[in-house]
Amino acid sequence: MKSTTATPRVIGHFIDGAGTRETESELIDRRAPGTDEIVSRVLRGSAHDVDRAVGSARTAFDSGTWQHATGMERYVILNKVAELIDREAANLARLDAEESGKPITLAEGDIAGAAGLWRYAASLALHVQGRSFTNNGPDFTGLVLREPIGVVGLVIPWNFPALILSQKLPFALAAGCTTVVKPSEFTSSTALEIARLTAEAGLPEGVLNVVVGDGQAGGAITAHRDVDMVSFTGSTATGRKVLAASAGNMKKLSLELGGKAANIVFADADLDDAAAGVVFGVNFNNGECCVSQPRLLVQDTVADEFIADVARRTAQIKVGQPLDHASDVGALIHAGHLDHVTSFVDNANKYGGEVIAGGQRLQGGEYGNGQFMAPAIINNVASTAPTFRDEIFGPVLTVTKFHTAAEAIELANNVDYGLSNSVWSKNTDTLLDTAKALRSGTVYANTTIDGIPQMPFGGYKASGVGREMGEAGFEEFTELKSVNIRTGKRAGSFPIPGNRS
Ligand code: NDP
Q1: Is 200 a catalytic site residue?
Q2: Residue 113 Cα, ligand 1 centroid: separation in angstroms?
Q3: Is 468 in the pocket of ligand 1 (CB under 6 A)?
Q4: Taking burial as the number of CB atoms within 10 A of a residue's CB, which of 57, 87, 111, 126 is the most buried?
């Protein structure tokens, strides 16, 4: 197992179909979460860089080459990108694991998932369609045209660098949009690699641009007057800033924000399956996942035995170096985030709750100076506690008991977020009734965290606006235009008779 890259990579922008680098003094060091060694240096993109990238995307859009390419032409290129992602999978997975701290096995799954998303989006390029209305009167035909929205800004977070990029970018491209991508300063490498692959696949220059850097570059994209739409994934706090910045030219927004999912376990569930699902749901991707399931709600009649089983399984989780295939949980994204996550465990007593497993930082030996912690469980957490309500974004499970289904639903819905939840029961009435009552964009029933490209994904409440993936996610990148065509010549001319509002 190789722990890190020997010489830090230098990461610049990708504008107008080519990589660009400017002065060394503007570089941001990226330390690998697993080792604290510098693995990459990222250019700090400025408003000027964003301006160049947006200009390139605007010129490419207005040239019509991509927006008027046939569905088949777009399909072939996007499908080719998927093939190239498969070809480069090992390198892409290593880069994501090294920079994000996620276990390499998950990074490999992310890259396979990313290729699948490009393939699915490619298929949608073949089906850009509007409608026609043939009952507007004898001399009228109504056409509803579906057109690409224009230049789209895509702001990507650090927890699934290649995967979340692929939940947005190929869908925007399939619709005929041109794009400016801003990856997180912590995890920029795979966005640049994928940009190079799109050039190899034949994507015309300027259709995809990448500006690296921090929130300054992200802010410049969201405020830019020549950007028609922003698709953002990240925190609800930054999502509010994006909302405000977009007001200048009334951009269309798609915001995929935080979550605080519940895993509701009824007494009649397959408890073995459910325990495995609960442990996976909270620890998947180090718990740094918007659909992570950090709240266990368990029916009181089976609670004690079930919690003991979950604690036993949690103790068996292998926390280790991100590049080690044996690791189940890797290192958290940076030292400040580790402080944030462990503060919830350290304050468990104050907030009301009892730590029954893990929570300590892991240092020295195989952990070195990395950002590691033992997955934690906090029992008997009240619904008023910050641990129950706030997004922790780490491997910390809270446990709360319920007696009736109504209580479980009330507890699950009693947070600001509404991205996803899970429910476990062998009774299909219970599953469906609970799924319908939950205020979240996704409900997993007898399963947990399994994204399907064909199914739309997004949030209720403070978890966001709009949908990604599926046909609904694709349509976010389009505008509808109504064209009412009059044929023939009427006696009397105007006003045109008919049903007018
Ligand atoms: P942010 O929301 O700040 O970051 C998400 C992306 O937005 C990054 O690319 C970031 O760039 C960029 N960004 C930052 N500021 C702005 C801005 N003003 N305008 C436009 N883009 C901006 O998340 P954090 O990294 O600060 O993480 C904090 C918390 O957010 C986490 O603990 C977690 O709770 C939540 N989160 C949720 C995610 C999800 O999947 N829904 C993903 C990531 C975080 P840069 O990183 O370079 O600053």
Answers
A1: no
A2: 22
A3: no
A4: 57
Statement to judge: residues 101 and 249 lie in one domain = yes
Pair (389, 287) in one structural domain? yes
Identify whether residues 122 and 252 lie together within a single domain.
yes
Residue 65 placed within a domain: yes
Q: Is 214 in the pocket of ligand 1 (CB under 6 A)?
A: yes
Catalytic residue among 288, 290, 468, 476: 290
pLDDT tens-digit profile, the chain (501 residues): 444 446 888 889 999 998 877 655 589 999 999 999 999 999 999 999 999 999 999 999 999 999 999 999 999 999 999 999 999 999 999 999 999 999 999 999 999 999 999 999 999 999 999 999 999 888 899 999 999 999 999 999 999 999 999 999 999 999 999 999 999 999 999 999 999 999 999 999 999 999 999 999 999 999 999 999 999 999 999 999 999 999 999 999 999 999 999 999 999 999 999 999 999 999 999 999 999 999 999 999 999 999 999 999 999 999 999 999 999 999 999 999 999 999 999 999 898 899 999 999 999 999 999 999 999 999 999 999 999 999 999 999 999 999 999 999 999 999 999 999 999 999 999 999 999 999 999 999 999 998 899 999 999 999 999 999 999 999 999 999 999 999 876 655 555 555 555
The predicted model scores a pTM of 0.95
Q: How many Å from the N-terminal Cα to the C-terminal Cα in the chain?
A: 69
Domain of 173, in residue numbers: 9-257+463-481
Q: Write the DSSP assignment of 381-441 as a string of letters.
A: --TTSHHHHS---SSEEEEEEESSHHHHHHHHHSSSEESEEEEE-S-HHHHHHHHHH--SS
Q: How many distinct structural domains can be found in the chain?
A: 2
* DSSP codes, 17-49: TEEE---GGGEEEEE-TTT--EEEEEE---HHH
Asked if 361 and 342 count as a contact pair (C-beta separation under 8 A), the reply is yes
CA of 225 to the centre of ligand 1 (A): 22
Enter the DSSP assignment of 211. -
**What is the C-alpha to C-alpha distance for residues 128 and 248, in angstroms, rounded to an integer?**
29
How far is Cα 395 from Cα 327, in angstroms, rounded to an integer?
Answer: 14
Q: Are residues 268 and 304 in the same domain?
A: yes
290 tagged catalytic: yes
- Considering the domain architecture, whether residues 346 and 313 belong to the same structural domain is answered as yes
The active-site residue out of 108, 256, 288, 468 is 256
CATH number where 298 lies:
3.40.309.10
Q: Report the separation in Å between the CA atom of 118 and the middle of ligand 1, taken as the mean of its atom positions.
A: 24
**Residue 464 contacts by C-beta under 8 Å, 6 or more apart in sequence?**
239, 254, 255, 256, 257, 419, 441, 458
Residues 272 and 246 in one domain: no
- Cα 54–Cα 59–Cα 61 angle in degrees, nearest 5: 90
Q: In angstroms, rounded to a whole number, what is the distance separating the alpha carbons of residues 278 and 290?
A: 15
